[in-house]
Amino acid sequence: MQKDSSLCNYEEFAECTWLPYTRGRTGGSISRFLGKISRDRAVRFFKVLQEEWGRQGTEELKKHRFWALDSTSITSYSENIATVTYGKNKDLISAPQTNVLFLVDQKTGIPLYFRNFCGNVPDVSTIRNTLAELAIADIDFSQITLVMDKGYGSNANWDDMLRNNMSFICNARRNLNGAITDIIDENYAALLNWNNGVSYLKQNAVTVPIVWHYDEFPVAGKRAQKQTKATLYVHLYFSKDVADEMSRRLQTQLCAALELHRTKPSELSDAQRKLLETYGDANENGKVTINMKKVDQHLKYAGIRVLVSDTIDNAVDCCVAYEERNEVEYAFNTLKARLTCNRTQVHSTEAWEGKLFLQMLATAINAMVRARVKLYNEGAVTKSGKKKYRVHYDSDHKLLGQLNNVYMTRFKDGWIFDEVAGKKKELFRILNVPLPTCEQVIMSDDQQEDPDEIADIEDIAAETVDPEVVEL
Predict the structure, then answer these.
(1) Partners of 99 in the β-ladder
(2) Residue 125 shares a structural domain with residue 158
């Protein structure tokens, strides 16, 4: 999480940082090291992570867990990474890219799972394989609810999650299926009725339970039976502020296009011509006027959002859970901006998988720092009502930078840290990290090591230390 976190700068970083292996690593040794982090080992890590969460997580966190699911694209021109293909990113720009999917715990902001897939695969096609990998990692679905945006909404994905007992909240597009539009039309008057307003959300909300039919045991090549039933809760929300803003923008754009058409038609842009073709009528003399019926038809559904869930039957709880999915956006911002992972910067599939794993760990550590800073700031008030030392919520990198100035002198039998006092001492307490002292000494560990881990350590030692001390 340094300013320039590229792995090619690792040797310089190792010279002034306390690390298990004192020597730096060359670019080749780093690539070989990353190649050893296989997907199977990553899945084993996720499994152990969930086991630790189950043992150490608080009852509040274990009671009901919302996991935000989303993906991002990373540009790469490498011809040796298997998942790099031409595809459109979130800005609809076509480029060679690979996609990364994250599952982030919305309470803590910590990424708990990732997947890498081809750059031309749309989000809607990733749910089935994601559920399969979570099952392989023995992750308990019973207390997890996936929170997804419109890109993951489809009848097939809802069926898959119901079959696997995976709860979900999904933002549904109005054109997803005919049932969504029909439900909106049937409850349109109630949705606009002020009696259904929710002051906390500053919106109107209506919940409609529906019976959903799906095939519990589908067989490839055979027609779906759809004899199994489940109750889905369709939550409808209407925001007048959003509707008014959409109406204002459309009016401004249409009026500008119409005025330009009447005065300087040759200067109309393609977007303006399309607007007039969509919402305008031309008479026999070529005069164009805005058709208000078309405008009203377009704005009928403005400001309306639809959330579908199989388990959350309260409109307020469902909306709050969906809004909190921005934690996954923070994770992607850390991954691409703070960790400079907007490009792969490796040249093989194996190294890319290993680097992604390391980047996920770094993103998780950053989320832990942010969460502990936020928790500290919320309680940073003394009994007298005065504010204690506070940390700016968006400056966790500055906090870590201050801790980088704590130096250590190492001796044969131990080490001594610089004196830590004042604000720096408070920073250790904020992060819930033990204050470094001169009492720590190097202790031998008599615990038996796993043979695979011993082999890994020997490989690393062979790459990082002089040949004459490899055996040591």
Answers:
(1) 73, 117
(2) yes
